[in-house]
Amino acid sequence: MNQNTYKAWFEKHRPRTINELIFPTVLNGEGKDPQYIKTIFEKFYNQEFIQGNVLSYGPAGRGKTSLNKIMQAKIIKHPNDIFILGRKTEDVDKLNAWLQARSVKSNQKLVVIEEIDRLSQQAQTILKDGPLEKYQDKISFLATTNNAQKLDPALLTRFNYRLFFDELDFNGAFGRSKYILETENIKYDEELLKQFVQLNIKRGLRELISNLEINSVTGEFIFDPKKALNLTGNEDYIIQTIVYLLAYLNNLDKEKVNDINKNSKSDSHFNQYYEYILKLIKQDLLLNYDYIYKNIIENDSIDFGTKSIFVDDYQQLDIVKMKNFHFLSTFSKAMDLIYKRKDL
Ligand SMILES: Nc1ncnc2c1ncn2[C@@H]1O[C@H](COP(=O)(O)OP(=O)(O)O)[C@@H](O)[C@H]1O
Ligand SMILES: [Mg+2]
């Protein structure tokens, strides 16, 4: 038989041990060092016994299923010692009988429930009413969901460990990416990889690894951060210049600011920069205004009042047609504020 051996990287490199998994940073609603959470699960792993029920929640591709598979592979020594609870109604009846049975060979029996929010109401009620606590000395329940908000709080509290897999630890994701590239024999530049991970980590690790694979087809990891952000290359210059001009205006006296507001040519230093921005805004049709607004808003040297003007107009950005004029109008509002403030 001609077996196709190709496997997508994210599947091929699914973590198989505790050390390969990047641990989340929130346990039972509280921010924690991922290393701390890892220590707890390392102990469960080594003793082959999970002391409690575990709910992993958060968006797709963050490692929820991987954690369950790692624990399962270590603890389960006989197929009868694990119960995969699915959505069929008869599953619940089977579960009841299974719960009574002794473990065949494993230190502990496991019930695995993927997407617990999608179980029938009946199944959720049964779970809420007893088994998660009743069998705690013999059975651990491992559940995952993308929609923890949908779960009944009474059911949620039956899980002693609620792990929120959301924003993953940067160093973990970077280390994992390096490991995958090295295992796959791909040449890469460390700095470039760092930028790539920074830009992709919010989308989850599955997405990140998929993109890593796409960007490595030639045997070398290639990545253009500007393209990834949808930038033309002029945005950073515009941001820096706007920030500079706002600071410049803040340091002038009222009279001067008024003159510039009326006619930018009245100050040749100001005008030189301003004209160049106007030129860029006219000729570069693909400027990423989203990026420009965001970076001006996040700039530390912008004061609160000016920031509010940019924030307000940023919210309109999606609906305005002429984004270039919208942006110039925001800047002019900011100049106006600087002028008015000089009255006080
Ligand atoms: N926390 C993580 N640590 C290491 N690899 C991860 C992690 N999260 C996701 N991955 C990668 O993404 C793939 C999908 O992860 P998975 O555990 O199925 O995500 P989830 O169940 O949260 O949707 C894994 O096979 C692995 O390659
Ligand atoms: Mg999953």
What does this structure look like?
By secondary structure, this protein is α/β, with parallel strands linked by helices. It has three domains: 23-164, P-loop containing nucleotide triphosphate hydrolases (Rossmann fold, 3-Layer(aba) Sandwich); 170-228; 235-341, no CATH class. It is 52% helix and 8% strand. The protein is built from 17 helices and seven strands. It has helices at 9-12, 34-47, 64-75, 89-100, 121-128, 131-134, 153-156, 170-183, 190-200, 205-214, 225-228, 235-250, 254-262, 268-283, 289-297, 304-316, 323-341; strands at 26-27, 30-31, 54-57, 82-84, 109-113, 139-145, 161-164. Strands 2-1-7-3-6-5-4 form a seven-stranded mixed β-sheet, sandwiched between helices. A hairpin with a 2-residue loop joins strand 1 and strand 2. Helix 8 packs across helix 9 (190-200). The longest helix is centred in the last third of the chain and has 19 residues, at 323-341. The protein starts with 8 loop residues before the first helix and ends with a helix. Bound molecules: adenosine-5'-diphosphate (ADP) and magnesium ion. Adenosine-5'-diphosphate (ADP) binds at residues 10-11, 13-15, 21-22, 60-66, 144, 165, 168, 176, 205-206, 209. Adenosine-5'-diphosphate (ADP) binds next to helix 1, helix 3 and helix 10.
